[in-house]
Amino acid sequence: MNANTNIFESYESEVRSYCRNFPTVFTRAKGPLLYDEEGREYIDFFCGAGALNYGHNPDLIRDRLVEYLQCDGVMHALDMYTRPKREFIEFYEEKVLKPRGLNFKLQFPGPTGTNAVEAALKLARKVKGRPGIFALMGAFHGMTLGSIALTTDAASRAGAGVPLEHVTHVPAPYMFPELDTLKYIETLLTDDHSGVEKPAAFILETTQADGGIYPMPAEWLRGLRELCDRHDLLLIVDDVQVGCARTGWFFSFERAGIVPDIVTQSKSIGGYGMPFALVLIKPELDIWEPGEHNGTFRGYQLSMVAAKAGLEIMLNERVEEKVQGRAHIFEEYMKKIEDLAPGKISTRGVGYVWGVDLAGCDGDKAPGTTSKRVLDIAFKNGLIVERVGRGNSVIKVMPELLIDEKTLRKGLDILTDAVRDAVKVR
């Protein structure tokens, strides 16, 4: 591959990451496909790290954005009242929240997932008057200081450069099957010799994504909700990556039948890859003072236009039903992939987010050796996937939610062949 990447390598900061795995220059994209300047086509199972649930350049959203721009609509308004904000709030409340029996107020923080998490943490601490937060091992919640204190990836934490405080990490339920993690958390809260102060809140992803694709059991989630109620803790669900129908429900917590106190959304809530974030707050918890958490680009107007159109697509296309209805396709292919190296490959997932864990194939090689080989072979053959989890040993399979079955199967075939080729090389 002879892509001209010299300008990036010469002048762009060394902090760049994803481009190192995909050494080509992309020029256009549509639906589930990306194209580079050499004319090559790639099936996108990376999905903007979860920001493109409705695919690249959906016609409806594109047309709404163009129309708004051509009419000289307000682009920047801080948190002033505007028509796009009114229309988004009305649609979200009437078409998304009320049909689900949910009652939340909406906060528009800065347009990133980590900013939504920061706002949720600040509010929880303000409401409860306690500085501590409980989070799960394996979590990823963002890269700003409050969020990175929740995140457990060692390399990410090291980049902070300062102590990361006021967070207690507890084992995720998948880590020690013999351990009753809810009882462990209860002990931390009730044992006068636990050495752990009572926190303000418990935050989690109901399916850990960058942690290696681990769906939390529905029964465990219900138990956690009850535990938080019993001990006066707020429950915060981070739906930045696995929300917006990614798991088969618009809110990932719906499969467990629970209602969090605070929910964070970003990525695909922007509809088009537009920067947008929301914090959903139970009304009685909305004790912010005016301007107490703000940002110059909070509630970006064009993102609200795109977000409303994205929600229309989600509802009109019955995306939740489609995602749940195609679970068998992923299960079929994951079984094929496991059978390529029985006992060494494991797979897990829910909805349209799955992981292929190749740690058992590395042997005496460095962690992530096999997964990197799979990523490279897949990219060479026209499929883009990401690596996540401990040692980056898990291939994350995350196609857009509107992908047609033929393209979905083609991408999964490429992935299966890539794993087959990779595990042959020892």
UniProtKB/TrEMBL annotation:
The keyword Transferase applies. The keyword Membrane does not apply. Its EC number is 2.6.1.76. GO terms for molecular function: diaminobutyrate-2-oxoglutarate transaminase activity; pyridoxal phosphate binding. Pathway: Amine and polyamine biosynthesis; ectoine biosynthesis; L-ectoine from L-aspartate 4-semialdehyde: step 1/3. Its cofactor is pyridoxal 5'-phosphate. This is Diaminobutyrate--2-oxoglutarate transaminase. It comes from Acutalibacter muris.
